[in-house]
Design brief:
heterodimer; A: about 625 residues; alpha/beta; Glutaredoxin; Rossmann fold; Ubiquitin-like (UB roll); B: alpha/beta; 19 helices; about 15% strand
């Protein structure tokens, strides 16, 4: 059904709202990638089956005129550590680690008798948290962009409209001039969420000014940082939010078509976007003369081919054009000559997802969140050695401490916090001294880190920072496009040096060479990715130089991460001479006489640790 | 328009597209690998970095000049970066400089020396890749490639052929062909423009010097040289002479010293081509054939391109063999007739061109299993031979060509420059032998270095449209216009290399528009100095038509059954 104009949109919205209200209960099964991997789709099927068996009406697509139970595949709820997740509305119960066997209880108790299933709820310190919003993980969050993720059926156009979707589009298209829309975004001071933090409104108005019949809107969904999955979750959980943001951008800049570039490793995101674009077209929200505004716009999906560098704007547009994904020199900038050398608005997923909120609620409302120079919220993917891994959203300027300890629930297994890598391989690491640092564009830049796309990898005291630097350098080197010399050859050499260091072959001169290379790469590489390629090394060298020195001078890794530096010793006082160790040693490195202390031949030992496990007297240890 | 302050010096700029051009105008040398004024800006070598007054670094090749801008080109910081970049490049490079053919003219070596890299602190960890020397014209050694992408862009942007591109990423990046095939197994047209721009020894001419020496030393062989027009205005560059200096007499002297038995000028072959092609064109015009226009056929890179890309146009390509092949066939025929001993006749063509090597080896250019041209050596190879034999080129006394082909016409010589074929053909049509007629032809619009030239001339009351292009990319766009009906021509002259044969890949490097302009000037000077202006006035040519060609004129043409 095509929605032709304002009246028809209002009627459709009204009807959808009523249909949504008729759902006595709503069961939202998380169908984000993490929970799907945990079996949430089977849970969804089982719940649906049980509902029908109990004679209840299962309403899958707001299709019934009667009161029923809505059962939906939603986007990511965020609390990935505890998945698969099931949320029940209107009580807002959040059930954690749900298994197939729990479905019966959920239907029997919650759906039929309005009782919670307490054993599936979050508990801490003898307190059971019934409502999702009260759980500490959620309590300190401000979910604006992620609001729909986990609270609507991610595959339903109707439900998006019922929740107020496309109202911003209506407002922009029917009540505002393109320049007003740009101005609104400028006033909101929305800054690009892709890493650079460039003001989106300024970008839009630059494109609007370009004198070209053809212009494009491109959405960067090529999220490639290790440990980052914010954009994926938004694409999977609220695809219409992105589409709405892109159409508004198209209108604001007088563009003709949009492209969403999604990495092919996100099949679910591609699928949800495909469904969303299809239904938007079907309802006339994409296509010719949208809502009778005279504005026409359509969106295509482009799947990436697996190159990290295609997250860089000019490489991304080259990739869409079918060329090899390599960044080009600027000028001309993308706003002047982007996709197919036409003026192009290029923003990332989260940026576009913010747009409908700003247009709908106004820029003043938006500026009420976050800090003055970084208004709004930011989604982060928090992973690593932290208790509550998952997807979170907090106002810009929230202290790092709050994110890691309050929302993230502190470090796993009671270990000590050591550092957090922020901004992926282009970012830097922050340490204990930064725990009070507000997370916003400018504060992070000051300490040599960056928000990047928003990946937070938390590391505990057992993490070797040299190895962390080597890991990221390995990633960057593999993902360098190879175009410019400093990035291609420089990262290769940095990786070589770091490999030498973790293998015990490093020297103090190597540290100087690392610094020299970092300086050259940062100042001479062609694109943003190259320029920031050395950041993990620079920041670990700055904050953890002692660890590097320990590796190169003492040939030691005190976290026992670097196997080449470890050595295994038998404490003669504790050894009873039972010979178990020598029997399990695969390389015959251990010898001795029975009932006398055994010894390890270091030149033979391969540090596999088999003896450590075999010793019944704890006489063997790694040093 | 405006001024910049470069290293404290005030420099006015006009329409320079980038700061690099302004810097060079200021007389400051900034090293670059990937910047060529004739190719698109790539910005990958990062050598041309400059610093603005706020200390930000940027590449000068990709930044347009701004009025009032203050920059520095040689701060300590910049020098340090450049040194590091070179060190990184060298670390990965095949460092056998002493035996590398490119040694002494390698840009990497030159710049490394200039920026002062004296030590490489990194290990040489690159795996050795196979060298592709299977093709007739170009040898590709990926171990010497610094991945500047110049060849990729030359192939793409000048020729529109695009057989080279990047593959893999990070430190595995390579310049290669589709599916890593050998160059001769892809659509490479052997023009060699890739090797012209290559800063290192990664792309080199496939040498036939050893085969030439073998023939010269073999007492049972009569070794006959033919020298192409463009060679005489370029070879001097190898010996410190200015581009465009005419060295024909010295080349003849050098070849005699090297032991060549007979030395001729390929311009005689060109004269034959002029006559044959002009008659073919007139014939087509008179018969009002709808297979117009007639395309020239003397450039082998163009010929291969047309075969591959436009088989439907092959009817339009002249049936004339190239001057090299016509002359090769004629020489062999002539010597067969007049020869008194039983020595084997070996024709060595000295060419400005790498594609000629491929042309001579094509099966249709052999008769009864014997090649018309046995060996093709380029200008550069001849220079190497001269050096290897201790001949001091600049001190050679000029010597004259041998008989019976000892005459050269200006029309034949101008084949070496883009527009020359057309001009020579027009001279054949205009029968009045006055200086003003010749001047009229030269001013018709077919001379000059523009990529596409057009001229309309009147011949026997007919308006004849002539198109002249160099660079296959230009040819392709002209063909598109012809096919679309946007343009109509009677004759189109196509040369693959910029400026025509003077810009061939067998010529000395460096090559740029300035060098090519000087060489072209040399060619026209040689034409001016030649007492014979027209092909049909060359007595050597007249003798041939009255002699061996009377019964064997078909050896001047391609034959259907020879086409592959």
């Amino acid at each position: 059904m095509i929605i032709n104009n304002l009246e028809e949109l209002q009627a459709f919205s009204e009807k959808s709202k009523q249909a949504l209200n008729r759902q006595r209960k709503k069961v939202l099964v998380c169908a984000g990638t993490g929970c799907v991997a945990g079996g949430s789709l089977e849970i969804y099927d089982r719940l649906g089956q049980l509902i029908k068996e109990r004679g209840l009406l299962a309403d899958l697509e707001l299709e019934h005129e009667k009161e029923g139970i809505g059962i939906k595949k939603s986007g990511c709820h965020g609390f990935c550590e505890m998945g698969p997740l099931v949320r029940i509305e209107p009580e807002n119960y959040l059930y954690l680690k749900v298994g197939i066997e729990d479905c019966e209880d959920i239907v029997e108790k919650t759906l039929m008798r309005d009782e919670p299933v307490e054993r599936l709820m979050f508990s801490a310190d003898n307190h059971i948290y019934k409502a999702q919003e009260d759980i500490p993980f959620y309590h300190k969050q401000t979910r604006m962009v992620l609001k729909n993720c986990g609270s609507i059926n991610a595959e339903s156009f109707t439900e998006y409209v019922a929740k107020g979707g496309y109202e911003a589009l209506r407002k922009a298209l029917l009540e505002m001039e393109p320049m007003e829309v740009c101005q609104s975004i400028i006033d909101s001071n929305l800054r690009g969420r892709g890493g650079g933090g460039y003001p989106a409104g300024r970008k839009w108005s630059q494109v609007l000014k370009q004198n070209s019949e053809v212009k494009y809107v491109v959405c960067n969904g090529d999220e490639g940082d290790p440990g980052a999955f914010m954009d994926r979750s938004i694409m999977e959980g609220d695809p219409h939010g992105i589409i709405e943001g892109m159409i508004i951008a198209g209108y604001a800049t007088k563009s003709t078509a949009g492209y969403i570039y999604v990495r092919a490793e996100y099949p679910l995101a591609v699928e949800r976007l495909r469904i969303a674009i299809g239904s938007a077209r079907k309802h006339g929200i994409l296509g010719k003369n949208i809502l009778n505004s005279g504005f026409s716009f359509d969106i295509n999906i482009n799947k990436g081919a697996g190159a990290f560098v295609c997250g860089e704007g000019s490489a991304l547009t080259a990739s869409i054009e079918g060329e090899r994904g390599m960044p080009r020199v600027k000028p001309p900038r993308t706003v002047e000559q982007g996709l197919w050398a036409k003026p192009t608005v290029l923003n990332n997923v989260e940026t576009f997802a913010n747009v409908p909120l700003i247009i709908k609620n106004g820029s003043d409302w938006y500026k009420g969140f976050g800090t003055e120079n970084s208004p709004g919220t930011k989604a982060f993917a928090i992973t690593g050695n932290v208790n509550n891994t998952g997807l979170i959203e907090v106002p810009m300027g929230t202290a790092l401490k709050e994110v890691i300890f309050d929302i993230g629930g502190g470090i796993k297994n009671g270990k000590k916090f050591k550092a957090v890598q922020i901004g992926g391989p282009s970012g830097g690491c922050l340490t204990e001294e930064h725990l009070d640092l507000p997370l916003d564009f400018d504060s992070l830049k000051k300490v040599g880190a960056m928000i990047g796309s928003g990946g937070l990898v938390v590391m505990d005291e057992d993490t070797c920072m040299v190895e962390v630097a080597r890991f990221f350098m390995n990633f960057t080197q593999n993902e360098s496009c190879g175009k410019c010399v400093p990035c291609r050859e420089g990262t290769k050499r940095m990786l070589e040096i770091l490999e030498n260091i973790v293998n015990g072959k490093g020297t103090l001169e190597d540290l100087d060479l690392l610094e020299e290379l970092s300086d050259t790469i940062s100042n001479t590489a062609l694109c943003g990715l190259g320029k920031s390629a050395a950041s993990p090394v620079v920041s670990t060298l700055k904050y953890f130089r002692n660890e590097y020195i320990e590796h190169v001078v003492d040939k030691k890794c005190s976290t026992h991460t670097c196997k080449a530096l470890a050595s295994i010793v038998i404490e003669s006082e504790k050894c009873k001479g039972c010979s178990k160790c020598s029997r399990v040693c695969p390389v015959n490195a251990i010898s001795g006489k029975i009932k006398e202390p055994f010894v390890i031949n270091k030149s033979k030992c391969i540090k596999c640790g088999a003896c450590l496990e075999a010793c019944p007297f704890n006489a063997i240890r790694e040093v | 328009m405006g001024h910049m302050i470069i290293d404290g010096q005030r420099i006015e700029f006009g329409d320079e597209k980038n700061i690099l051009a302004v810097i060079r105008k200021a007389g400051i040398e900034l090293p670059t690998f990937c910047y060529h004024s004739e190719l698109s800006v790539y910005g990958a070598c990062r050598m041309c970095m400059i610093e603005d007054k706020w200390g930000s670094t940027m590449t000068s090749c990709s930044t347009p000049p701004k009025d009032g801008m203050e920059i520095k080109t040689n701060t300590e910081k910049l020098k340090k970066y450049r040194k590091m970049i070179i060190e990184l490049l060298l670390a990965n490079h095949d460092r056998d400089c002493t035996t590398c053919e490119k040694s002494g003219r390698c840009k990497l070596q030159e710049i490394a020396l200039k920026v002062g890299v004296r030590k490489i602190r990194f290990g040489q960890g690159k795996k050795v890749m196979p060298v592709d020397d299977l093709g007739p014209s170009i040898v590709r050694n990926p171990n010497k490639c610094i991945l500047c992408g110049d060849c990729v862009r030359a192939c793409q942007e000048i020729q529109g052929v695009g057989v080279l591109d990047f593959a893999y990423r990070g430190s595995d990046l390579q310049v290669t062909t589709a599916f890593n095939k050998a160059l001769h197994a892809v659509d490479c047209v052997n023009c060699g423009q890739c090797r012209v721009v290559c800063p290192t020894g990664a792309l080199m001419i496939k040498k036939e010097i050893d085969r030439a020496y073998e023939a010269l030393q073999n007492k049972n062989m009569r070794v006959i040289a033919q020298i192409a027009p463009a060679v005489r205005v370029a070879i001097g560059e190898e010996f410190g002479l200015e581009p465009g200096a005419i060295s024909m007499g010295k080349i003849v002297a050098a070849l005699r010293k090297l032991g060549f038995d007979n030395i001729f000028d390929t311009a005689v072959g060109a004269d034959l081509t002029v006559i044959e092609e002009a008659e073919e064109l007139m014939d087509r015009i008179q018969k009002k054939q709808n297979t117009m226009p007639l395309f020239s056929s003397c450039c082998p890179a163009w010929f291969k391109y047309a075969e591959q890309k436009h088989p439907e146009l092959m009817e339009n390509v002249s049936s004339c063999r190239s001057p090299q092949q016509m002359f090769g066939a004629v020489i062999k025929e002539q010597f067969k007739r007049q020869q008194k001993d039983d020595r084997q006749n070996v024709v060595v063509a000295i060419m400005p061109c790498t594609a000629k090597k491929h042309e001579a080896a094509r099966p249709e250019n052999s008769r009864n299993g014997i090649r018309d041209v046995d060996i093709v050596i380029t200008t550069q190879e001849l220079a190497i031979m001269i050096q290897e034999n201790g001949i001091i080129f600049n001190e050679l006394e000029e010597e004259a060509l041998d008989m019976p082909f000892g005459f050269t016409s200006g029309a034949g010589v101008i084949f070496g420059v883009s527009g020359g074929v057309s001009e020579a053909v027009l001279r054949y049509y205009y029968k009045e032998r006055t200086a003003s007629t010749l001047k009229g032809i030269s001013y018709s619009g077919i001379r000059g270095m523009e990529g596409v030239k057009e001229a309309t001339v009147e011949i026997d009351g007919r308006q004849v449209r002539i198109g002249v292009v160099h660079g296959l990319k230009n040819a392709e766009s002209l063909i598109k216009k012809i096919v679309n009906g946007q343009e109509r021509f009677d004759f189109v002259e196509v040369m693959a290399c910029p400026g025509g044969c003077i810009g061939g890949a067998g010529q000395p490097i460096p090559q740029n528009s300035d060098v090519r302009r000087k060489r072209a000037k040399g060619i026209y000077k040689a034409d001016n100095e030649s007492p014979i202006k027209r092909s049909e006035d060359n007595p050597a040519v007249t003798n041939l038509y009255e002699g061996i060609l009377q019964s064997k004129r078909e050896i001047l043409h391609r034959h259907e059954n020879h086409q592959n």
